[in-house]
Amino acid sequence: MRSKIILAGLAILFVTSAIHAQKVKVDVDKSFNFSTFKTFAWSKGQVAPSPSTSQMLIAAVERELTSRGLVKNDEHPDLRIAVMAAPDMDLQGVGPSWNNTSYRSWGGYGNPAALMNIGRGTLLIDLLETKKEFSIWRGVSKDIFVASPSGDPEKDLRHMQELVDKTVRKMFQKYPVKAHG
Fold it and tell me: For site-directed labelling of 75, which of 12, 29, 40, 130 has its Cα 20 to 30 A away?
């Protein structure tokens, strides 16, 4: 019974509507040589409000990074991953270190430390290099978490898995190092 309630909650919160087109924007700090990064780890904190969506996002991001030759290393990572998923409410986040007037995902704020709104339905993935704690890569996808349940929680969960995989794959197509095989 409890699992059906969780699945129903997922369906209501996280299923995308077929009407909405997937919008992905990726920004990269081109002053870094991404081929030098060999390891990654996750930042502390919640990835998404739902544990199952968190698991989907973690698996998708790790799949993309490992396909580019990176290895997970919680002790001494070169990159740290931070994710904000805003399915049912607006959140606030800090702009990337390279933020300037041409950075349009956030509206061109000139202050990299400025708090910026992450609108409802948005997924944000940040990669931070760990030596100086600079944000070096940011993927943003808007309008992906939009309520439109089908009435079949298992189908909705499968659809959410496909959406997360597609969105993360689309973001990482613009990662400076191409995937292997």
Answer: 29
Closest CA to 55 of 174, 128, 160, 180: 160
* DSSP three-state, residue 104: helix
The reported pTM is 0.75
Buried b (16+ CB within 10 A) or exposed e, 16-32: beeeeeeebebbbbeeb
Say if residue 59 is exposed, middle or buried (CB neighbours under 10 Å; 0-12, 13-18, 19+): middle
SS3 97: coil
Residue 172 near residue 125, CB atoms below 8 Å:
no
Whether 48 and 60 have beta carbons less than 8 Å apart is answered as: no
**DSSP of 116-132, one letter per residue?**
EEE-TTEEEEEEEETTT
Q: Name the residue among 91, 82, 60, 85 with its Cα closest to residue 170.
A: 60
Q: Kindly state the tokens that stand for 104.
A: 């349009």
Q: 100-154, pLDDT tens digit by residue?
A: 444 444 444 444 455 555 666 778 898 999 988 788 898 988 877 665 677 888 8
Written as one letter, the residue type at 100 is N
Cα–Cα distance between 100 and 82 in angstroms, integer?
A: 20
User: Each residue of 14-33: pLDDT tens digit?
Assistant: 433 333 456 888 988 888 99
